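Z., the sequence and structure:
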Amino acid sequence: MRNGIFYKPSINDLEAQIFGIVTKSTPQKNTGILTTCTRREWAILKNKLEQISSTNGSLLKLIQNAAFVVNLDQAGDDSPIEQFLHGGKFATNRWFDCTLQLIINDDGDFGICYEHSVCEGIPVVQLAAEIKRAIIQNPTKEKYYYGNSPLEPLSFRTSHELDLLVSRQIENHRVQQERLDLNVFKFEKFGKTFIKKQNMSPDAFLQVALQCAYHRIYCRLPCSYESGSIRRFRDGRVDNIRASTIPALQLCRHLSEFYSRGDCKSSLSTNSMDYLRKAVRFQTSITQQAITGKGLDNHLLALLNTLKEVSLPIPELFTDNSFKTFNHFELSTSQIPTISRDIYMCYGPVVPDGYGCSYNPQKDCIVFCISSYKDCDATSSERFRRALAESLETLMDICNQFNSKRSNSADKEDIRKDVFGKTPRRVRCNSQVDDLDQLALETRRSTFKRAQTEDKFRL
């Protein structure tokens, strides 16, 4: 896809045809912008395209049956991550009604845009890692051999009504792009290696840190979402791991007492590590429950849809305002690990007053992609980034103080070993020794008598 026009190149003459697509000057077609409409609107517009011409129906079928779409962009001034996420000024060179779009521009920036309802993010970033590895292992050739296979452009036929809708949707999508506030944050003071040394799960630790960051801003925990895979079950997809727990709230309230004092590092108490361990262990526990089919969300959703299908009365549980709050995810998160810190995935918030936050834990750093909406005064990606950095540093201080006290105790034990030659054992007084000897003697006598009795029964 180039300048909004589709091509179907031949594998046998791929280099020559891609070169021809990139160098050939073609007029811009903006039909692809219609795929940025809502699903219902796009379904109506798709039917209109099919009714205009049979050629449109054949092209739609060709796109639908394709494994992926390759988007060849021109060089631009937009941030590559935003260009890959929503298209930027090249949004007309996108077709969002497909599973996978492989995007590359004239500057050599490469990215992937995929439709989330088909699969999770981990297989997609693994695909990106494989492509990057192949590019590094097979550097660009100095010379290309061009063929002569003909390549015809494929574009949709439109009507005056659709052209007006295209112009309107270009402006609507531009407004949506400007709403998004995206912040890529690399925390480099520690990574998953440090967390594992604390005998904690990196995912649970970071989920607790996200809760602390949100509480630091709003003095409450959010309704949060973390996708947990249930692929181990037949037809399984994901369930929700809810990180807004009572132990996490207790930790946040414990830390808020020290935030107000200014010097939080010197004010941390000796039981701060206990609060942290309880929150992380509980988060690990509910993660195991969710990925083993014991989560709440899928069961409630199945029950609600079943009641609707059989036309039974809907219980008050599903009509109460608390259930709406229960599903208003102010913090949408997911761990998307990769082998490289330069590969990461981002997405937007799922509610107008919420945050989207993916995280990629590396050995020595953690990469976060934080998003929010600029037109919401209650949220700010930069403010959440600062709160997250401060929360991570605070949790690091808790672990370091605990490790320092533990190492001091170990040093004292080593000193005792040096003085006494070995660790001194606790010595009892003479009366205790006599009592123990008497108890041992009576035990031996009772054992001997029992053995004699058993021998008599055998005879």
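The beta strands are 69-73, 100-105, 110-114, 180-187, 224-229, 238-240, 331-335, 355-361, 366-373. The chain has two domains: 11-179, 188-407.

Let me know what you think.
H.
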